[in-house]
# Entry
Amino acid sequence: MVGKVQRKNYRIDVTKLNRVKVILRTKTETETIHRALELVADEAALARALRGLVVKGHGHIEAVDGNG
# Structure
């Protein structure tokens, strides 16, 4: 998803930024920040979806193939 891009100036912990850059294997600080934001948004969406499944299943989830 591509959104509006705008130049921003932030005070940021460079040590944390560099750690994340290594973890994500990104080349630039900008790419690192974009990827990290995407991961957080994706994780939040996944958590909402899983929460919905748990609610629908009344706290019980079983394997689709019946082996669980």
